[in-house]
Prior knowledge:
Oligomer: single chain
Mean pLDDT: 79
Amino acid sequence: xxxxxxxxxxxxxxxxxxxxxxxxxxxxxxxxxxxxxxxxxxxxxxxxxxxxxxxxxxxxxxxxxxxxxxxxxxxxxxxxxxxxxxxxxxxxxxxxxxxxxxxxxxxxxxxxxxxxxxxxxxxxxxxxxxxxxxxxxxxxxxxxxxxxxxxxxxxxxxxxxxxxxxxxxxxxxxxxxxxxxxxxxxxxxxxxxxxxxxxxxxxxxxxxxxxxxxxxxxxxxxxxxxxxxxxxxxxxxxxxxxxxxxxxxxxxxxxxxxxxxxxxxxxxxxxxxxxxxxxxxxxxxxxxxxxxxxxxxxxxxxxxxxxxxxxxxxxxxxxxxxxxxxxxxxxxxxxxxxxxxxxxxxxxxxxxxxxxxxxxxxxxxxxxxxxxxxxxxxxxxxxxxxxxxxxxxxxxxxxxxxxxxxxxxxxxxxxxxxxxxxxx
Length: 424
């Protein structure tokens, strides 16, 4: 009986042990099977969004698993993030919007009705009354220095007035250093004085000045509520080595509001001078949006011919600015100009020159339009008369201001004023 009892106990233990081992092996097989799954199966599970918990023996192998590794592995499955060594990716920073150039501020309101009827007003002679019906004045001192120009100029009653900067001789010459002196504070004083804008008269340059140097000041002026009018001798500055480059940059500059090429040399020409020097008139058809074309002419009597010429060239005009002075203006007293040389002009000086001589000009010898009247009207000495007399003559005082200096004639031909040739 005792032996039978021991046998039963041994058999029960053996069976229990066997069952226990089988169960343990089954569980181990499940665990090993789960762990043996390839990362690709786990990756498929995660990528499909079905879940992070994987067990191939389940009817639904991919299961969220309560979003917990312990819950997943407690159920005998594989926690895929651990198998794949997955860590939550760091969100990429948002892509900044593409940068773009700041918008160009609009030009200040320009209170002129109809076409512009303007005039240059010489401050050293008391100013000009302008032509009949004038609505715009340029207070012209001829100084490129900002302080000199502002102290020598005034706002003309009843006219939208621009402050001139620059001129045709050394007083009006431009340099990068001088331009840097035109500060924002100075421009604010120009605006506070009552000027509507700046007339940049650019004819003479000291060294090469990059277009960007002028552009920076055009931007500053616009930001301070000033209108930018750019003027130059004929179709490019006569004494700037990169004059053509400058004008082409101004034609394309959205911060330039008005283009005013000067269709004269001395200002006494009986007819407008349409000679184009390097920059052709038809190029002004490509002015930046918002620009207006308002050429400077010797006098209003030439306006009809000028308008006809540019209509044929396809360049619409918005008016004119007259150079010659008109008496009768109620302006402040004349502003004294810089001293100029006096004395006598000798036969030797004239013989070396030929026709029109004025030692204060940057180009002392000039053809003078082959006219004694034009030469003497510009303050020069007509040499043929002096040479005929054979004696020295009183040296004609140069105008006490930076009056535009005649440029050395360049070999250039006016563009034909026919629709077929000038508008192409």
